[in-house]
Amino acid sequence: MNKIETFIETLRSHKKCFTYEFSSPASFSLEALFETIKKENLPAKIDAFVCTDSPLAKLKHNAILASLKLQNTFEIPSITTMSMRDRNTLALQSELIGMNSLDLRLILALTGDPIRHGNQPQAKGIFEGNSNVLLKTICQLNTAKDINNNPIQGDFKPFYPFSVLNSYSNKKQNLYKKMQEKIQNGALAIFTQPIYDLEIAEELLQWSNQINQECNTHCVLIFGFFPITSYKTALFLHNKLPGVFVPQGYLESMEKASQKGMEFEIGLQKSQELFNHLCKIHNKIHLMSANKADIIGKILNG
């Protein structure tokens, strides 16, 4: 069985499944970050990478090429993030066909952050549609036909489409509807934004189980996890990152830790406890750390 299909089997099983976010820098070289990954022996502890695609509309190393480098270097699957912001459906299909031939077949579909958030003001957003258009396009390509129903020649292996979801909203019904739409449009797994409230984790899992039952699907929910090791980070996540909620008690603990000069130690301890609790609820976790592989290594070593 191909390593990609093995990953999908693990994801859909009752086994634990961890993915790690690799955030491509604005650099011609990725080797320095690769060395930190090797140092922490992360490839032996995770099941797949997730390679970001210029988040916040900031210039970064190309996600497709970074995914290929990750997959070839560490010999585990890499999930490639693709954004509707930068491509129309012609470009999307063309890239996906080429990726299939390179065995890059795990795709995380995003709408993409607006250009105004980034550092390339001259650029123009495409936004031919949102992430659901990309999910539908991938499902159509899985029939070996383009979105106009024209056949595509050559050997073909299936794509596996994934999506993302905020972990919090003041309007729960809207969040539920978005999860439902993503599942109905073919997402095989949904990655959430970082979760810091266990009640929210339980509720999201309940929603996904309910929607899967209604739609006769098997979409897997993957909890987002981002360790907080500073009060500044806690405030940023809570106030600036849409769809993320950090409980007041968590914020107060990190503020007190900051005043005592013990942010990292207490933050790491609280993050470890959160990670352990999330794993007990649902052992499918997406690990994020802004490329601080050493912190993720500490968490996984427990």
UniProtKB/TrEMBL annotation:
Keyword field contains Flavoprotein: yes
Organism superkingdom: Bacteria
Annotated catalysed reactions: (6S)-5-methyl-5,6,7,8-tetrahydrofolate + NAD(+) = (6R)-5,10-methylene-5,6,7,8-tetrahydrofolate + NADH + H(+)
GO biological process: methionine biosynthetic process; tetrahydrofolate interconversion
GO function term, MF aspect, one: methylenetetrahydrofolate reductase (NADH) activity
One Gene Ontology CC term in the entry: cytosol
Cofactor: FAD
Protein family according to the UniProt entry: Belongs to the methylenetetrahydrofolate reductase family.
Protein name: Methylenetetrahydrofolate reductase
Species: Helicobacter canadensis MIT 98-5491
Organism lineage string: Bacteria, Pseudomonadati, Campylobacterota, Epsilonproteobacteria, Campylobacterales
